[in-house]
Amino acid sequence: MRLAVVGATGAVGTVMRELLRKRAFPADEVVLFASERSAGKVLDGLTIQPLRDDTVGGFDIALFSAGGSTSKAWAEKFAAGGAVVVDNSSAWRMDPDVPLVVSEVNPDDLDDARKGIVANPNCTTMVVMLPAKALHDRFGLTEMVATSFQAAGGAGQKGIDELAAQVAPLAEDVDQLVNDGRAAARKVEHSVHANTLAFNVVPLLGTLNEEGYTDEEMKLRNESRKILGLPDLRVTPTCVRVPVMVGHSIAVRATFARDPDLGEALEALREFPNLLVEEAPTPLEWAGRDETVVGRVRRDLADPKVLNFFVVGDNLLKGAALNTVQLAELVVDRGLVGSAAPAA
Q1: Same domain for 207 and 301?
Q2: Domain coverage including residue 59
Q3: Catalytic residue at 248?
Q4: Residue of 123, 136, 190, 239 with catalytic role
Q5: Which of 136, 190, 193, 248 is catalytic?
Q6: 3-state class of 259 per DSSP?
Q7: Looking at CB atoms within 10 Å, which of 73, 279, 315, 339 has the fewest?
Q8: CATH code at 134?
Q9: What is the per-residue pLDDT across 191-229, written as a single tens digit (0 to 9) for each?
Q10: Subunit info (predicted)?
Q11: Residue 123 a catalytic site member
């Protein structure tokens, strides 16, 4: 089995490589691909290859995490050469011929990869899907109000680096943080995040549309509908960037067709694979952990059909690299390797 990792030097690609080793993925050969400037360098004892027509054929599985433009340009070429592509970008998520899959939630959708491509959801959507699916199966989900608290690492290594560079200069003058926050915010530069992130929260994450929602927020609505198979699911999203290095958190107000019993809800959450229940989980404490964790599960004060909960997951692991590798494992387990490429 030949496996390609495209975007091998990035933040998610680095975690993918670690997971492939840690989980002993059954590849006989792993080939790393990255940008032209990285081609020829040695990483993990392997020489990084450039993306060219003569280098992308003959793979069984290709894991992509190199951005949407790269995925659009090269995913179909890998698939045409016989690979099942698992793509971590937004390029293919809403394509009707490309399944959008969370490994624990809708694995059967893998069987419908007509283009030979499987899409990995947005990291925020991913975290919400595990408890949403567990509760939907019991009570029938009809609506979600989801407010995210997304880590700097959601923007990749550059997002982490920008936050880290801002902390020390602002921390030097606590009085200014208290009494002249605008001046403090302007002491440092920002280009990755929409505003200074250190000691702050930024309620603008992505590009605004005409209705005042960002593309990040629309992903949360549209991807949730596709993954859960609920095209009419009502979703009201708000995405916020917070000064956390790694780990997305989402506060969810979920409405169901029938009144949810709290005890039954907690039972469903505890029984769901790779989902843990804790009283008040925090992203810092769950950074570097594979599982998704949910807490603050409670009945709504006003509506008997509503449950409120708070869910946390490592956006580089389950939110990206881990689910990608899990999908590759499912492709192997389900005998789909070599079967999903388009017919000549």
Answers
A1: yes
A2: 2-121+321-333
A3: yes
A4: 123
A5: 248
A6: coil
A7: 279
A8: 3.30.360.10
A9: 999 999 999 999 999 999 999 999 999 999 999 999 999
A10: Homodimer.
A11: yes
